[in-house]
Amino acid sequence: MRWQERRCYDILEETTSGWLWMLEKRETEAALGYRQSGGRRRPLEAVVAKVSAPMAGDVREKGRGEEEVHDGGYARAERSEVFGGRRQRVIVRSISMCPAAVPTGTKKSLPQRNIEEERRQFAVVKAVFPPAPGGDRMKERRRKPPSEVVVAGGKRGGPLRFNIRWAARKTIGARIPAIDSSVHSSIPAPATSVDRRRTLLEERCTAPNQPTRNQKGPPSGLQRSATNSTNPCLPRPGPPSAKTLILLFLFLRMPSSKVGLSNCRKKPVLNQTDLSDVVDFHAILESVDLIDGIFRLDCPGFDRPVFCFRDRPGTNFRFFDSTSLTAIYGPISDLFAAVQNKKILVEAENTVLSLGDDKIHSGNYIFSESNANTSVEAQGSFKSVSASTLLRKLRWGTLGLQFNWSKVSDQLRLRITGDQGGNLNERQGNFHTANCWSRNYDFTLPHNKIPEKLCQLAKEMAVPAMPSGEEFQPEAAIVNYFGPSDMLGGHLDDMEADWSKPIVSISLGCKAIFLLGGTSREDVPVSMFLRSGDIVLMAGKARECFHGVPRIFTDDKHAEVSVLLSQFSGEDDCCITDYIKNSRININIRQVN
Ligand SMILES: O=C(O)CCC(=O)C(=O)O
Ligand SMILES: [Fe+2]
Asked: Which Pfam families does the UniProt record give (predicted)?
């Protein structure tokens, strides 16, 4: 039953053996023992608390002007914007910002609308597992979640004025008391790290902050409706023990940004929020009801039902143009084993790779026995960090073909922030035609192949989204590691040449909310729960849709990892179980060519 999940965890060790891994700059420095030159070195927690406090789009107070604050590698922007007819100061932090900015003519979109084709192309696969023994699923499904969920933040002013803020209130800002306490008691993971990685990706098609046009209201919400038993889209019922659900997104919706982690010092103001609009495929699978706007598709040759979204509401994004990242290229391996054995990572060698105009910091890192007499910060000339710290701080890594992140970042700075004349569209056009399509994946960067087991799994799971007779070729993968307060801002994944091939996106660990938008920043997203073992497939039209992960659930009740945890009972498994309880891992696998 949990084969998919289990297989993923079997290969988890390998997914942390990628060639490239990346930490937030400040974290990297802190973790590796660098000192801030000249500056006061503040504890990481303080920095995290500070940047975590403001929510995306958080309205603070009236103000004028614009300022950007870069804080130890983190960044936030304070802008003056007009909300509700008055000018107010807005703090924006790590907002995803990728508009559908690829100029007409360069965008690789589907040549022809073909609904049947699209059904295959825009797929989300979801694995749903049998209820825990004794669990009352019907009761579970009927229970309304809102009463159990509260939102951090208090009055934010005009939540519907910007859809992004609607999303923040409706889903992103959702907080469960137990989560808050766990957040406070744990060392807060930087809420921005995953976004940072994404920010680099997005920068290539970023537009400056623009006033929202044609704003739409919040989505009407997907209503439950009785299923028509003659619905041709309904698949044959599968064996309950192998209930894996495939969701097919015909038109996806877009995400929004994030909610900040509660400030460690201030108690968050908790308001109630309503998660009843969050699509729960688990419940749909258990139910005889479908939800309006979602249908099930029979997919020959694939033993799991396929669910599709019919419509595409939208959301909008606001732009935030700031990033400061340090990419560290270099292989690490056996991270979990190193944690288990209390090893430390030392930088054995530090080189700088030259890639065209870029210089990329590249290290040779090895895990070595920790020496009781050697403090982490005093390893001779080596910078070092304990494997457990590294695991906690790790936010993403890549497998297979590498992307030259720093190049994109530099180019973006030149193109977008440089004074090159022309209007925004022209600048974006220049940027895209000159750089994006020719400079995304860098085939010259050293890399390892994606682990074979992961390739195999991706190929199998990609079937519903592949053109018939073609096999998915996994060439690159990004592994996102989400801590309790991490989130992934709205973005497009458009680096790959052929958008008709799916991205196979596997969720592991704690349950998350996934937001799915449209092709425009102004489209309102639909939100859905992704549980451990779920797989999202996106291809074709869906590649043009914004999506993101505003939050994960780490409290015992909502994380839904108990069955998974029960599979790790060995003594050596404790570092994995500890990690699973507070984390979500997403592995998204791509065919690049
Ligand atoms: O974590 C997820 O479910 C989505 C990840 C994603 O969209 C990405 O890495 O591009
Ligand atoms: Fe993505």
From this structure: 2OG-FeII_Oxy_2 (PF13532)
φ/ψ region of 400 (left if φ > 0, alpha if ψ in -120 to 50, else beta) reads left
Handedness of CA 111, 117, 118, 122 (dihedral sign): negative
Give the DSSP letter of residue 85. Answer: T
Nearest atom in ligand 1 to 482's CA: 1
Model ipTM over 0.95: yes
- Locate tokens 């995306």: which residue? 56
C-alpha 348 – ligand 2 centre gap (Å): 33
Is the residue at 359 inside a domain?
no
The ligand 1 atom nearest the CA atom of 584: 1
Cα(424)–Cα(304) distance, integer angstroms: 45
Query: CA–CA separation, 245 vs 281, rounded Å?
Result: 8
The closest residue, in CA terms, to atom 3 on ligand 1 is 586
Q: Give the span between the Cα atoms of 158 and 169, in whole angstroms.
A: 10
Q: Residue 144 sits in which domain range?
A: 3-106+119-209+235-323+331-354+364-590
Dist CA 408 CA 360 (whole Å): 12
Residue 187 lies in a domain: yes
> How far does residue 246's CA lie from ligand 2's centre (Å)?
18
Question: How many domains are contained in the chain?
Answer: 1
Question: What is the maximum alpha-carbon separation in the chain?
Answer: 72
Beta strands 290-291 and 174-175: pairing type? Answer: unpaired
Residue with tokens 């934010």: 156
Any domain includes 112: no
Q: Which residue matches tokens 């074709």?
A: 540
The two three-digit tokens of residue 483, written as one number: 């801590």
Measured between alpha carbons, how far is 525 from 518 in angstroms, rounded to an integer?
7
Coil, helix or strand for 422? Answer: coil
Q: What is the DSSP string of 162-203?
A: SHHHHHIIIIITEE-HHHHHHHHHSPPPPTTHHHHHHHHHHH
Say if CB 143 and CB 280 are below 8 A apart: no
Q: For 349, how many CA atoms within 13 A lie in the half-sphere containing its CB? A: 8
| 3-state SS class at 91 | strand
Query: Within 10 A of 158 (CB to CB), how many other CB atoms are there?
Result: 14
Asked if residue 228 is part of any domain, the answer here is no
Condensed to tens digits (0 to 9), the pLDDT of residues 64-82 reads: 332 322 222 222 333 343 3
pLDDT, tens digit, for every residue of 322-352? 233 344 556 677 778 888 888 887 766 655 5
Highest mean pLDDT among 354-358, 381-385, 553-557: 553-557
What gap in Å lies between CA 38 and CA 210, rounded to an integer? Answer: 37
